[in-house]
Amino acid sequence: MLRTVHVTAGAAVVCALLSGCGDDAVSTPSTDSPLYSGTASSALGSSTNTATCASCHSNDGTPRSGETLRNIAYHTAFKGGAAPTLLAATNACVTGWMGGTALTETDPRWLGVQTYLRSISSPEFTTPNTLAPEVLANEAAYETAYAGGDATLGAPLYARFCGTCHSVGTTVHNARALPRSNLRAFSVGRIAQQVRTSGPPPSGAMDATDSTPGPMPFFEPDELSQTDLRNIIAWVRSPM
Ligand code: HEC
Ligand code: HEC
Predict the structure, then answer these.
(1) Is the CB of 172 under 6 A from ligand 1?
(2) What is the separation of C-alpha 143 from the centre of its chain, rounded to a whole number of angstroms?
(3) What is the fold of 139-237?
(4) What is the DSSP string of 109-168?
């Protein structure tokens, strides 16, 4: 069993609040690093960026727009092979999403990120994650695929997957995530295409026909299923 315990008062509080803290088979973060979820993390991006690693990646094994960072540190490749090292993968996010400058191997901020990611990872997990965005022909194809969801089922899913940015006004690099009142007017197809293919290089989801190049991250079907996204879209478009 691998477990790194950072002994601070904060860690004790987190463990007291989280059920299951202390009885997991693999490593569990005993406390969040500021480089993962605090201002030290958002400061890795541009001066206007307020997104942190936690805006897009969980540390507990559950999906957000990005893969969970739990048990990621010892994978043999990242981003579907596009990033050979953990540093390269982190830099793709720091420069591509957050608008920051690439970290170097000896930068104390990188060493801090690396230490944290190792502390929530067990070396037995080495198999790379897949990278498979859902890219349909055009907005009309997304409209067909995602019409007819259930808004009631979508409400809690929106809070979980979209609310980490859209309910708190997160600025990713230089673009602010607007509240649902601003998203309601978009068509089903537009919202679905945004969620499935949004992103700048080097997200791996860019192509000539992409009409969603902004800094919002894309969600792959293995992170957010078609059914769940259909229900989220019904909720986004429902009356306020
Ligand atoms: C705005 C959203 C966003 C932010 C902020 C962000 N990432 Fe990512 N990250 C992604 C997306 C999207 C991917 C692409 C594939 C995936 O993980 O689903 C990715 C991929 C990765 C990968 C490779 C995952 C794999 O298995 O291939 C690592 C490692 C990573 N990010 C680390 C970080 C770290 C560390 C930070 C904070 C310094 C960070 N990211 C900030 C969205 C983000
Ligand atoms: C990491 C933060 C983040 C998350 C998580 C996120 N968004 Fe966004 N979203 C943004 C930002 C920033 C913008 C504005 C810039 C852009 O268009 O990329 C945006 C823009 C949008 C737009 C407007 C697109 C347009 O054409 O202007 C829609 C619709 C949207 N998001 C829906 C969603 C839905 C639905 C989810 C959840 C499945 C979600 N977003 C999750 C950050 C986020």
Answers:
(1) yes
(2) 24
(3) Cytochrome Bc1 Complex; Chain D, domain 2 (1.10.760)
(4) HHHHHHHHHHHT--TT--PPPP------SSHHHHHHHH-S--HHHHHHHHHHHTHHHHTT
Task: Record the tokens describing residue 125, joined without a space.
Answer: 């997990």
Name the residue of 50, 57, 94, 101 to mutate for ligand 1: max ligand atoms within 8 A of Cβ: 57
In this prediction, residues 36-50 reach a mean pLDDT of 97
CB of 191 sitting under 6 A from ligand 2? yes
Average pLDDT, the chain: 85
> In this structure, which ligand is nearest to the CA of 87?
1
Q: How far is the CA of 211 from the centre of ligand 2 (A)?
A: 13
145-195: per-residue pLDDT in tens? 999 999 999 999 999 999 989 999 999 999 999 999 999 999 999 999 999
Spans of all domains in the chain: 32-119, 139-237
Atom of ligand 1 nearest to the CA of 41: 38
Q: Max CA-CA distance within the chain?
A: 53
What does the pLDDT look like over 45-99, one tens digit per residue? Answer: 999 999 999 999 999 999 998 899 999 999 999 998 889 999 999 999 999 899 9
Q: Which of 66, 58, 65, 64 is nearest to 83 (CA)?
A: 66
Ligand 2 pocket member 42 (CB < 6 A): no
Ligand 2 atom closest to 211 (CA)? 26
